[in-house]
Amino acid sequence: MKIAVIGAGYVGLVSGACFAEFGHEVTCVDYDESRILRLSKGEIPIYEPGLEAIIKKNTQAGRLIFSTQYTPSVPEADVVFIAVGTPASRRGDGYADLTYVYEAARQMAPFLRDYTVVINKSTVPVGTAAQVKRIISETNPDASFDVASNPEFLREGAAINDFMRPDRIVLGVDSKRAEEVLRAVYRPLYLIETPIVITTIETAELIKYAANAFLATKISFINEVASLCEEIGGNVQDVAKGIGLDGRIGRKFLHAGPGYGGSCFPKDTQALLRIAQENVVAFRIIEATIEVNAAQKARMTRKIRQALGGSEGGKTIAVLGLAFKPETDDVRDSPAITIISKLVEHGALVRAHDPQAMGEAAKLLTGVTFCANAYEACEGADALVLMTEWNEYRALDLDRIKSQLKTPLFIDLRNVYRPAAMRQIGFNYHSVGRATVNGCADEA
Ligand code: NAD
Ligand code: UGA
User: Fold this and answer.
1) pLDDT averaged over the chain?
2) Residue nearest to atom 30 of ligand 2 (CA)
3) Is residue 264 flagged as an active site residue?
4) Right CATH number for 2-199 from 3.30.390.60, 3.40.50.720, 3.40.50.11810, 3.40.630.30?
5) Rounded to the nearest 5°, which phi and psi values hold at 371?
């Protein structure tokens, strides 16, 4: 099939590359000229494991091309995917900003030829597909098309595997013809028996927000359990295991930490809350999830302050990890950025390292020294804060870290290390939700 993907960001690039890997002929269209120029030269503008190889293979095979133009790909396409950004609105009211989606619809409409299915892959509020349909009809009254919704569930850092081996495909359609076309797009996944959920367009739009909001709620839930553990002398990792082994609950997304971040959970929980409010439905759980997440970041800042003896002013703090999660260079809404900004505001000197995200972080942070590696970051520091659990921070040479630090204070916001072992090495070690009552609750 011939596929045009509008938007060559995380989702557009991964989807385009993977559709090409399925054997389809794909063009990724982005109006960002420098991005397309880099892609055409074989440079990958984002860090996503495995993406470069798959792009290289498929561009060489002639199945994947990049363009700033809607022609000839849109007129020739059987399907056009919209995969542009839907950030939180600049008004700060929680609404999703749909400017890019509507602009993409308006720009591509004149080029539609023959029957085409226009599929929304961006995360959008209920009713957006109907607006896209209206915009295309108004811009090109002769166009023969259907609009469908196919939300994307990939995670950054694991995007290729998530796309090639998804838990499910959700298709929101209002015509049999569009359903057939979409089924054909995903036919290669029949081999691995991927479940397909066919539903109305509006329900598909809601499924995406509900999925992200549910996962965010799981994280806020376990973060509150962690706070309780610190008070009662419990171990949040044991609680997570103890409840997660119940198949109805599941073990995933029960890692306590500095709060969820990234380009999606924060904006999507806010957007779902807005959708509920507009429809006069009280979605109190989402409200609480959002509040708990903000409180968690503030609590982690206080944890660092308290460990430093009550004030971070004039103290040097080494920070490991800036990305909102490992295996990405994305720092959008990263808890590390929020926490570092607060520490710097209160007079701390921050020495930071991240394997991939220092370039992006430098655009948002001031007064931070970026270091070549974890050990350099620790040089002369009063404390070390492990903010993002990159693999290379899981097996640090702890004796070397200790000798680099001025004071052996280690604040592990991702519970990577074992408290008892850390204390044995001589660290004043703090983590999240692993209290030390009778010296045994933190041994897990
Ligand atoms: P992104 O910001 O990384 O990329 C969007 C791209 O679209 C940019 O390169 C931009 O230049 C381009 N663009 C915008 N308007 C355009 C237009 N009219 N014509 C051509 N190109 C245009 O965004 P993203 O992270 O890929 O997210 C895209 C959507 O997918 C969002 O709705 C997001 O919520 C959703 N989503 C993202 C992820 C993720 O992991 N990032 C996962 C699932 C769903
Ligand atoms: C998330 C969803 O997992 C994807 O299914 C979805 O497609 C995507 O949002 C999206 O809509 O964009 P992503 O943001 O890439 O994916 O990353 P996650 O792995 O979900 O992590 C999100 C945040 O939650 C990170 O800050 C992470 O550190 C945090 N987290 C995650 C925890 O604090 N604890 C956990 O147990 C899991």
Assistant:
1) 96
2) 260
3) yes
4) 3.40.50.720
5) -115, 160
